[in-house]
Amino acid sequence: MSQSEQTAHRAAPEAVTTLVKDVSNLVSMPEVYYRILDLAENENSTAAEIGEVISHDTGLTARLLRIANSAFYGFPSSIETVSRAITVIGLRELRDLVLATSAIDAFEHIPLDMANMRKFWHHSLYTGVCARILANRAKVLHSERLFVAGLLHDIGHLVMFMKLPGQLRQCMVLAGREDLDIHQAERRLLGFDHAELGAALLTHWKLPPGLAQTTRFHHEPARAEKFQLECAIVHVANILAKHADLADVVAAGDFSYDQTALRLLTFTPDQADEIRQQAQQQFSEAKDIFLPKAANNY
């Protein structure tokens, strides 16, 4: 590591903390999410109580019922109330859906000239769909949380789009010139990468610790000390999405699979086409109900 890289690395924690604080003044999770989280963690809470909290937010209520009644879930009968959705989908799963929609909405008003938001959210959603499929194949409990983990894995790039657009462009140039993955270029120029930045934001928002871990280690799941299987799922899902011609706007490098992730999932690259075929249908069903209008307008 060069002297300039060492200096950047030493400055990274302070820079990340400052960026997270700055962004948190502009975007934040809604209060309704934290109220639902508190109720979800209380074993005495009922579906009716949580439904009552959600019902005060008419936009969220409509969105959740639309999701619950979509082909993405495929329930045979109509779900007309949030309490019924909780009963059918599950409390944890509904909490995670609230998290997913709230996080997307929090960043909806980023100026589009700073990033191709359509490509960003399409890649993120596709990663979430692949992660959900992989989690079900691996028989992971509450697979919906892996959908959310995949959806939010690149959230650190949204912070960079907002706060470091010039530096991010420099990282993209370096990644292309030297055939690096974008996170490698970010570390070289900034001393930190979008994964570290995204994990810090999710931690600041007091979101479940597994989400911060999958975000932090989605490029290097073998380094994760906790939630390693979940990190492996998001890692593989991210690469599947990049190979699906829905590439991240800042993608570079050869997208090779981490061997630890393949071993944990008993996944082989020749299974990729099968996963992507399942994911493509689910992605088509999910994008109109999860993504903000700006992500589907062009």
State the CATH topology of the largest domain.
Answer: Hypothetical protein af1432
- Name the average pLDDT: 85
CATH architecture of the largest domain: Orthogonal Bundle
Number of structurally distinct domains: 2
CATH class of the largest domain: Mainly Alpha
Largest sheet: none
**Could you give me the name of the CATH homologous superfamily of the largest domain?**
Hypothetical protein af1432
**Number of E-state strands:** 0
Return the string of H and E elements.
Answer: HHHHHHHHHHHHHHHH
Rg measurement, Å = 19 Å
Shape: globular
Task: Considering the chains and any ligands shown, give keywords for the structure.
single chain, 298 residues, mainly alpha, Hypothetical protein af1432, 2 domains, 16 helices, 66% helix
Summarize the structure.
The protein is mainly alpha-helical and 298 residues long.
Question: What's the structural blueprint in terms of helices and strands?
Answer:
Layout: H1 3-24, H2 31-40, H3 47-55, H4 58-68, H5 82-89, H6 91-106, H7 117-137, H8 144-152, H9 155-163, H10 165-178, H11 182-190, H12 194-204, H13 209-216, H14 228-242, H15 259-265, H16 272-290
Helix pairs in contact: 1-11, 1-12, 2-3, 2-6, 3-5, 5-6, 6-8, 7-8, 7-14, 7-16, 8-13, 9-12, 10-11, 12-13, 13-14, 14-15
